[in-house]
Amino acid sequence: MQLGIFLNREGALAMAVEAERLGFGYALAPEGFRSDAVSVLGAVAAVTERIRLAPGVMQIPARTPVMAALTAATLNDLSGGRFALALGVSNPDVSQGWYGVPFDAPLARAREYVEVVRLALSGAPVRYEGEHFRLPPSGGGTPAHLHAAAVGTDLPVFLAGVRPGSLRLAGAVADGWIGVFCPPERLAESVATIAASRAAAGRDMAGFEVLPSIPIGVGEDVERAAEPLRPYFANFLGLGSKERSIYFALAVRMGFGAAAAEVHERCAAGDRAGAARAVPLEFMDQVSLIGDARRIAARMAEYAAAGVTTLGLTSLAFSVDGHLANIRVAAEAHRILPQPV
Q1: Do residues 177 and 161 lie in contact, with contact meaning Cβ atoms separated by under 8 Å?
Q2: 59 Cβ partners below 8 Å, 6+ apart?
Q3: Quick check: pTM over 0.85?
Q4: Helix or strand or coil: residue 86?
Q5: Is the link from the previous residue into 57 a cis peptide, with omega within 30 of 0?
Q6: pLDDT, tens digit, for every residue of 11-59?
């Protein structure tokens, strides 16, 4: 199991350079309220040489599939072949509210999207007749035919997902999976679901990337180390509608329904500080790496045993120096992982 780092826009270049120095396998750029992924990854490509790059994740409703393919091919070329394309359907409120894209049949839409992306990356003219994507549209038009330098390469495509249908889709059509809110025991269940889907398609897990996003907070005192994580979890639990939020539903499934409801209510009322305080420490501890290097190493070992191939760290700190300290402690914990992992 190798390490990856989800970059913050602030300090992204310094974080990526340090992660590369420490031997991390991936640098990933989230996409959402703070920044897009593409701009950050383009900058990171220019200051690194070895670490692989991926969005964490590019939102499917935000781009047409041909533009996603062109972006991926361009970043792969600029980075010297280090790019993997990671995609996610986002959620109903973002899809409709941000991009004006319906959220009906998100898995069927994602399947077709990946098929169009792969077709475009193959270098062939993009002619596709699906339920959600028709290229060129009825009535004619010139098909897309990409000539980017990286077209024709076997560029990996990852899918993000939480629910079983998303996991099965990732196993069936993708080269990797990105997860969130993943305690080791639930992650092992997710890997089993993915493996079953791949087996049904005649494939095993060899070469398949299992890359969960795991928040990290470093410190001798667990409660104090968890403080920078609180706004992160409050944001996810308060996002959009309770009835439509995959993150809220996941917290309920984990047994934190009452707390998640309080966090959501406080966010809706504009009380972000109160929402952060309402996030239970037990919930954060189940899905994060919190503590000193030895406590974090013990938790890393559980993730390795659950089938993780790249442990993607979401560093949560109040400064760039804090992020760099988190990366260094994570590398130290990785070195002292109990053997065998």
Answers
A1: yes
A2: 31, 32, 87, 88, 89, 90, 94, 95, 99
A3: yes
A4: strand
A5: yes
A6: 999 999 999 999 999 999 999 888 999 999 999 999 999 999 999 999 9
